[in-house]
Amino acid sequence: MSDLHVRLSSPAPPHRRALSPGREAILQGPLELNTTLPPTLSEKAPVTPLAEAPLNLEEYIDPHIFKQLPRLYPTASQLAYTDLQTYTTHALLARPTLVSIARLTQQFLIQSAPTDYQRILHLWILRLASLSLLNLPLIAEAEAQALSDFNTSDVFRTKTGHSIIPWTLRVLLVNIQTQSHGQLGIAKYYSLAREARIESWKSAKRNASAAAADPSALPTPRWQTRLFKCGLYIAAMLSHIKDFAAAFEHVSAMRDSCPGDDEHAFERVKIIQVTALLYVEAGDGKRMDEWFDKLPNQDADPIPETPTVQLEQAVASLSISEPPANEDRTERDTLFTTLAGEPPQPQRQPGTIVTGETTYFDSDKFGEANMAAAGVDNERKCNLAIAYLHDGRIDMARALFKDLIAAGFRFTDLIFRFCLLDELKHEIQRTPEFL
């Protein structure tokens, strides 16, 4: 193991380095992808839940938890929750779609039975994921505070010690709840990585001993994937606190430790994509090109003319126009609500627009409202570039990222949103289980 690898994977101080082989293995970080069983591995004592009765999550569906979303973004036309599985990636990341998901999940959460905990947890994943992809961290953080004990309380663990909280939700909560405490977020991701490593070893040990199958246990490959993704989320957190030197060192160590066989091709591609995104966030278009060149480029298919895409195009065309006069604003609002399938809203009086993240002055004299719309257009381009990168349309993603870098766009949690897209698409495929 190289010195770099030791430095990143073993944060313990020197006086604690002389540990037993089993303990030393447990303290490895998420960069170590091997599943070799340590010489000794003490089983975690079973945790007895505080509540043996059916789990009641009534306090997590309280209507007072939810914050009002900005009115700056309209919803998609007649979005059916079950139809999300057929959406293309770029249509799924369109702002009207994400706003519709956020509002629908809020409605379904409030209407859910308190004991239907699997449905409630599934809806919370979609709610927080949509808020994060909409780049509304203040709203997401405020709502996530009500879920602060999901990662800590033994109430949510079975007698075998497994948490009933979905792994995706636990990972998501770490990022949202530690937005202003990056080092704490990194430490929590290392804690999750340690849990994933131990569970992976336990699974391999059960397979080796031909022990009776545990219905609540996951196979080793699932835990290996979770361990790998913890490494990506750590890179996202390092990028969030703008510690690019540590982030580049981290992904470099991940790349060096990733095996070169076909079985780990997915991990290698993800590492290259995250490395390229790091250079995007750093504003280095030249180095971004070098890493994008390492990725296979798929042919671009024409974007289907769905209502969501038409609405996105309308938002883009309006956001780059001249500051509208008062009589034009009514026409603009009518266009939004007509495409969104909502009744027209009364015209706003000159004042302020509170979006939940920033308060914009609604004054045509200075054009701040139009500047806000231009910011929305850049966010739309950013999500579209993420979608293209996810689908392997490298040239299209490259062009959009170059435009954003040239425009001086300030990227926010780009890597986290890219990683979150996989989780969102996976969760959407599970919607029939809960409806």
What does this structure look like?
With 435 residues, this protein is mainly alpha-helical. The protein has a domain at 307-342 and 349-414. It has 17 helices and 2 strands. A two-stranded antiparallel sheet has the order 1-2. The termini are far apart. Mean pLDDT is 74; it is low at 1-27, 37-53 and 302-371.
Reading the helices and strands in chain order gives: HHHHHHHHHHHHHHEEHHH
Put simply, the count of helices is 17
Mean pLDDT: 74
Any idea what the shape is?
globular
Which oligomeric state applies? Answer: single chain
Return residue spans where pLDDT drops below 50 for at least 5 consecutive residues: 1-27, 37-53, 302-371
Strand content: under 5%
What's this entry about, in short?
This protein is an all-alpha fold and 435 residues long.
Keywords, please?
435 residues; globular; mainly alpha; two-stranded antiparallel sheet; 2 strands
SSE blueprint:
Blueprint: H1 3-9, H2 21-26, H3 89-92, H4 95-111, H5 117-133, H6 137-144, H7 167-177, H8 182-209, H9 220-240, H10 244-257, H11 265-282, H12 285-292, H13 307-319, H14 326-340, E1 352-354, E2 359-361, H15 368-390, H16 394-406, H17 414-428
Antiparallel strand pairs: 1-2
